């Protein structure tokens, strides 16, 4: 079986075919960065049914929620509010977003939290997961599109917390629940 990738180089596209040697090719300078790109083109192993069940949880802490309406970290949680979810903003630089009190960390939230939805770069995920572990009742850590952290995934799974990555919580909701 051949795997074919289009790779953008400095001045042109190269068609590269691999057969059984993908891993060793990724370690060369020519393919630097491709490993992360390949990984992020896939998502976690959740089935549609498993993702649907996650939406039964209604309390979502959104880490990195933004005041800027043009950013996904604003309009995605706004959509979830419109769909009936209780969204709790986590942003240490804002007092309030969308009329809701913000918190500096997930562990500071006094009310129930089921899902921690993360809008932070991959390298910032581990401390978010670590902090979330201090909050009893967390069922799911959800990392938005393009975000993954294997160390964060490991400690979440060790604590029996479901870990979703490289998926938009709004896009998945629309795909699974909108009949349009």
From TrEMBL:
The protein's name in its UniProt record: Putative coenzyme A binding protein
Source domain of life: Archaea
Residue ranges of domain CoA-binding in the record: 54-147
Gene3D superfamilies: NAD(P)-binding Rossmann-like Domain
Signal peptide residue numbers: none
Pfam families for the chain: CoA_binding_2
InterPro entries for this protein: CoA-bd (IPR003781), NAD(P)-bd_dom_sf (IPR036291)
């Amino acid at each position: 079986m051949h795997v074919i990738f289009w790779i953008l180089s400095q001045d042109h596209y190269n068609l590269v075919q691999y057969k059984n040697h993908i891993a060793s090719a990724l370690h060369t300078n020519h393919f630097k960065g491709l490993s992360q790109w390949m990984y992020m083109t896939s998502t976690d192993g959740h089935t549609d049914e498993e993702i649907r069940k996650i939406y039964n949880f209604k309390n979502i802490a959104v880490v990195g929620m933004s005041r800027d309406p043009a950013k996904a970290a604003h309009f995605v949680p706004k959509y979830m509010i419109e769909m009936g979810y209780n969204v709790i903003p986590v942003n240490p630089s804002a007092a309030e977003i969308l009329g809701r009190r913000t918190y500096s960390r997930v562990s500071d939230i006094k009310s129930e939290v089921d899902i921690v939805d993360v809008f932070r770069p991959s390298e910032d995920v581990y401390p978010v997961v670590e902090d979330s572990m201090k909050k009893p009742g967390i069922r799911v850590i959800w990392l938005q599109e393009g975000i993954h952290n294997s160390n964060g995934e490991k400690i979440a799974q060790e604590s029996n917390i479901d870990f979703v990555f490289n998926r938009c919580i709004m896009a998945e909701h629309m795909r699974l629940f909108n009949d349009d």
